[in-house]
Specification:
The complex is a heterodimer of chains A (127) and B (107). Chain A has four helices and no strands. Chain A has 127 residues and is mainly alpha-helical. Helices cover 89% and strands 0% of the residues of chain B. In chain B, helix 1 (3-32) crosses helix 3. Chain B starts with a helix and ends with a helix. Classes of the chains: A mainly alpha (127), B mainly alpha (107).
């Protein structure tokens, strides 16, 4: 049965703004994150089957692609965290002015890149 | 309180609690991802890590299930397909964290 509820307008209809970019990236990173968390659950479960089964994953994570993958998910998690904080601030009724939404959107985009580097350094050097 | 309001409140609470858990996990992941088998096992067998990781997985799946169901609401017109997609989503949000937590407690 077809629903009578209107669907979201197609993303190609509107001109792109920073807010729409952040919004669509929030959804994409959300889906990426849950796929990554599923892989991490699988990874944690494989540990139960012993060291020999772990070797393939370990060699992938130590390769260039593995490091790129870790950096990618660090960015994806950082973006999602910052974007979620932005949403929570908006839920309290702040930051709806067009100028503010542009500024907070830019903070999410560039902040996620900065956080990726910061988290990598914290995880590798200081933690 | 209508169901949509309850769903929104749960989404906001799980989103707020997920942020610190996500940051805790990513910093730890960067720290141990390229370590050997014993170091990774050491992380998952530590009782506080085990507890926080379990909370992280439960929260992440709960939050994702609620968020993705909103995406289904926005883009799927057919009610039958939408219901099946939602049921599969909610089932996986219960089964995957449950199996993972059971397996890591056996480590």
């Amino acid at each position: 049965m077809e629903s009578k509820t209107p669907l979201s307008p197609h993303i190609q209809i509107y001109r792109w703004h920073i807010s729409s970019l952040v919004s669509i990236c929030h959804r994409i990173t959300g889906i990426i994150n849950i796929i990554v968390i599923t892989l991490i659950c699988l990874w944690a479960s494989i540990l139960l089957f012993g060291e020999s089964n772990y070797e393939t994953i370990n060699s992938f994570l130590n390769s260039f692609m593995g490091k790129f993958f870790i950096l990618g998910i660090t960015w994806s998690f950082s973006f999602q965290a910052l974007s979620e904080i932005r949403h929570l601030i908006m839920d309290f009724g702040y930051g709806f002015e067009i100028k503010t939404t542009k500024i907070t959107g830019l903070i999410v985009i560039f902040g996620s890149l900065i956080l990726t580097v910061v988290f990598y350094l914290i995880g590798k050097i200081f933690f | 309180m209508i169901n949509a309001t309850k769903k929104w409140i749960f989404l906001k609470i799980s989103g707020a609690t997920l942020v610190p858990l996500m940051l805790w996990f990513i910093i730890n992941l960067i720290n141990f991802y390229d370590q050997g088998f014993s170091d990774v096992v050491k992380f998952f067998t530590n009782s506080s890590s085990k507890f926080l990781f379990s909370m992280f997985v439960i929260n992440a799946y709960f939050f994702s299930a609620l968020s993705i169901s909103e995406v289904f609401e926005d883009y799927i017109r057919n009610n039958k397909i939408k219901n099946v997609a939602n049921k599969l989503l909610y089932a996986s949000a219960v089964v995957i964290p449950l199996i993972t937590i059971i397996l890591i407690t056996k480590l």
